[in-house]
């Protein structure tokens, strides 16, 4: 039943917010070193992600990888793992807590507990100009989880198999040789590359709108450790109207891997795992 606001309701609402995780003490990525190393880097691999499908790729520590729009406006769902320990994977929730709802150049994709270290650093973003629009929308979000068949079934009773969750599951199973059932447990919340999203101001609901991405736009990363990646070209296309659909116009995405010249990263080392002693007060 409706509740009557207390007499001091406005005073309670007017309390100023406090940032949960002030990030001024986060380790600062050496962006100038990364930019210099990128100058002479040579492409060593590329993977074309078909529309409404996913594929895996590998990036050695100290290399760069770029995700590009190549034919039309298209968003992608990105998973990352430690290539040598699949138990360490991208932690979207902590990346969001440390950097904000959307990631851009100079910010990082952090790994899961108990490791909590940078997996990748964003070194280039051609959509960095977009910022935050009047609706509270921005690009490259870490708030949406990925389109999945379970929510589709819950809301509309469908059995749709080319949503990003299923795409990533099939791609991971094919890459690792494990069963679909086991692979599904490794798929995790994503970085929504190029997707334009936010929360409505009145109801707080997650929204999407047409992505500003165009062919030749890209998001580029520096691999802080050896990475296994999986990228799904979302069946929503640019997510201007719907996702998990065969109706939306969809396009492929291109992943390219670039290896710096020997000696270009002089003094750089992969970040160590988190220093917490894991005693948990016991």
Nearest-integer average pLDDT:
96
Taken from the alpha-carbon principal axes, the silhouette is globular
What is the number of domains?
A: 1
Rg (CA only): 20 Å
How far is it from the N-terminal to the C-terminal residue, by CA? 45 Å
Largest sheet: 7 strands, antiparallel
* Low-confidence runs: none
Number of strands: 13
**Which strand-content bin applies to the residues?**
25-35%
Helix/strand-derived class?
Answer: alpha+beta
Per DSSP, the total helix count is 6
**How do the helices and strands follow one another from N- to C-terminus?**
HHEEEEEHEEEHHHEEEEE
The percent range for helix content is 10-25%
Summarize it.
This protein has about 280 residues and is an alpha+beta fold. The protein is built from six helices and 13 strands.
Note the main attributes of this structure:
seven-stranded antiparallel beta sheet; globular; six-stranded antiparallel beta sheet; 17% helix; 13 strands; 6 helices
Can you put this structure into words, describing what you see?
The chain is α+β, with helices and mostly antiparallel strands and 282 residues long. The chain has one domain (38-259). The protein contains six helices and 13 strands. It has helices at residues 9-13, 31-39, 92-99, 149-156, 164-176, 180-184; strands at residues 42-49, 54-59, 64-69, 76-82, 85-89, 108-110, 118-125, 138-141, 191-199, 206-209, 218-223, 227-233, 253-259. Strands 2, 4, 5, 8, 9, 10 and 12 form a seven-stranded antiparallel beta sheet that branches. A hairpin with a 2-residue loop joins strand 4 (76-82) and strand 5 (85-89). The radius of gyration is 20 Å and the shape is globular. It starts with 8 loop residues before the first helix and ends in a 23-residue tail after the last strand. The mean pLDDT is 96.
């Amino acid at each position: 039943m409706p509740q009557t606001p207390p007499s001091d309701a406005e005073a309670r609402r007017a309390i100023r917010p406090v940032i949960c995780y002030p990030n001024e003490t986060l380790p600062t990525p050496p962006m100038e070193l990364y930019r210099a190393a990128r100058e002479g880097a040579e492409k060593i691999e590329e993977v074309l992600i078909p529309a409404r499908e996913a594929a895996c790729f590998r990036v050695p520590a100290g290399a760069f990888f770029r995700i590009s729009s190549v034919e039309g406006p298209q968003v992608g769902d990105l998973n990352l793992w430690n290539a040598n320990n699949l138990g360490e994977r991208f932690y979207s929730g902590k990346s969001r807590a440390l950097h904000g709802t959307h990631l851009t150049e100079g910010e990082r994709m952090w790994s899961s507990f108990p490791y909590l270290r940078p997996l990748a650093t964003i070194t280039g973003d051609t959509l960095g100009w977009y910022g935050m629009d009047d609706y509270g929308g921005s690009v490259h979000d870490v708030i949406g989880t990925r389109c999945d068949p379970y929510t589709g079934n819950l809301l509309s009773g469908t059995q749709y198999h080319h949503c990003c969750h299923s795409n990533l599951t099939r791609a991971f199973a094919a890459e690792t040789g494990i069963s679909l059932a086991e692979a599904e447990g490794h798929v995790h919340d994503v970085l929504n590359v190029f997707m334009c999203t936010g929360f409505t101001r009145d109801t707080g609901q997650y929204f999407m709108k047409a992505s500003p991405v165009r062919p030749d736009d890209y998001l580029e990363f520096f691999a802080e450790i050896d990475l296994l990646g999986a990228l799904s070209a979302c069946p929503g296309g640019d997510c201007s109207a719907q996702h998990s659909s065969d109706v939306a116009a969809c396009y492929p995405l291109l992943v390219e891997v670039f290896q710096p010249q020997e000696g270009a990263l002089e003094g750089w080392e992969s970040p160590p795992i988190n220093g917490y002693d894991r005693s948990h007060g016991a």
